[in-house]
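note to self: dont lose this again. the chain is below, predicted strucutre after it. 83 aa total, dont forget to put it in the shared folder this time
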Amino acid sequence: MDENTPPLVFANKVIRQMIQHMVAEDMVIDQKDYLAIRLVFRKCGGSWVKFVGGDLPQFEILKEVITSWGQMPGRQKSSEQLI
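---
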């Protein structure tokens, strides 16, 4: 599936917004990070369909996944990258 299909664009946008609000506004996020977060979210029982429907437990699952991702060693902010 192409990274530009509407469901993936939506999921990536939600992930990016949550990272910016919960972890750091200038956190560097690669395409492989989006994929990893989406996969872990699904493996933890998350459903994007339920998330879109406003199911609060889905938000909590995604919040846990993103918080864990943000605490992993090696995460960089764009302000920390060398020019």
